[in-house]
Amino acid sequence: EPGTRQLADLLASARDAGLLLMPSGKARHIIRLLIPLTIEPDVLHEGLDIFERCLAALA
């Protein structure tokens, strides 16, 4: 069974930290990252750092 509860917690945590993530998939248990091709490297790293911290908090 997909971890939909964990994903909901991750989405909320990321949103609170300023990062918007998009759930996807039939059961809404997949995370889609929609990163623009023109993103600045420092902005990309900031977003990935937030994502990593939010994932670590779930463990």
UniProtKB/TrEMBL annotation:
Keywords: Aminotransferase, Transferase. InterPro entries: PyrdxlP-dep_Trfase, PyrdxlP-dep_Trfase_small. One of its GO terms (molecular function) is transaminase activity. The keyword Transferase applies. This is 4-aminobutyrate aminotransferase. It comes from Pseudomonas amygdali pv. tabaci.
